[in-house]
Amino acid sequence: xxxxxxxxxxxxxxxxxxxxxxxxxxxxxxxxxxxxxxxxxxxxxxxxxxxxxxxxxxxxxxxxxxxxxxxxxxxxxxxxxxxxxxxxxxxxxxxxxxxxxx
Length: 102
Fold this sequence. Notes:
The protein has three helices and three strands. The chain has helices at about 35-45, 50-65, 75-90; strands spanning about 25-30, 65-75, 95-100.
C-alpha cells in the first residue's frame, strides 16, 4: 500500500516592492555650428537610434530648437549627456544636451 505523505507547505515571504528609479529625458539643443551629420552620428552611436529616428530627431532639434533623445534613469541619462559633450568637444562643436525629469 502506498503511503500518503502530506505535501510540504512552504511559506513564501512577501517580497517588498522595489520602486522604479525616476526617469529623466535627455534633450538636445540646437546651435548654429554643429552639423546635421554630426547630430545624426551622435544619435546613432550614443542613443542607439535607427537612421530614420536619428534623422527625425535631428530635424526636430533643427526646426524647434530642442529635441528629445530618450528617457533613462538618472545615472544612464547623465552618462549619455557627458558622452555627447565629450564627443562634441573632441570634434570642436558646441553641441549641448540637458536633463529634465520625465
